[in-house]
Design a protein that fits this description.
Blueprint: H1 9-16, E1 22-28, E2 37-43, H2 61-74, E3 77-83, H3 85-91, H4 93-106, E4 114-118, E5 128-132, H5 135-138, H6 140-163, H7 169-172, H8 178-187, H9 200-203
Parallel strand pairs: 1-4, 4-5
Antiparallel strand pairs: 1-2, 2-3
Helix pairs in contact: 2-6, 3-4
Amino acid sequence: MKKVGARRTIENALRRYGFVCVAGVDEVGRGCLAGPVMAGAVVLDPERHIPGLADSKALTEQARERLYDVIVAKSISWAVAAAEPAEIDTINIHQATFEAMRRALLALAPVPDAVIVDGFRIPALAIAQRRVIKGDRQCSAIAAASILAKVTRDRLMDRLHHEDPRYGFDRHKGYATADHLSAVSRFGYSPIHRRSFRPPTLFDGLPAADTEIT
């Protein structure tokens, strides 16, 4: 993916309309077979520019790690929240994504008075919103949120790999790669797999993994 630098054009426009605390929010992990869906929320400081912000998918792991530290140090506020696999299976991935985003936003202090969202509007959120298609490529605050969510989730999947290395979570982070599917066909599900995401022709009838991850 070609790297496209994000800008503060949208945040600045909202501030000109009178909004003071403008947050960006984004999620990662919607399409994974295992692990949580995770949302990041960030209020960037208009006086402290962070060069290099871009969609987390367009950045190298090294660049994401570097930018994570800068975002945490220079932002007015930031938060990361998750919806776990059991919750995803209960309320579906779409609603779980909204829930993770709401949690991240409401964890910010102060709570923002405007939110820029990548792709869609968040229901049941009593904060002014602006939806931006492909916002993680265009908007600095959304790009920063995507980086925080991606780095946090990748670190979690690395820890889960060390607790149970059978599935290779350190390599694919829970996405449906060939080696991940092969591991599930051999070992069944682990406690962090999403039961509602299984391809029926491959996984129906497979036993659950007998080793729990806590």
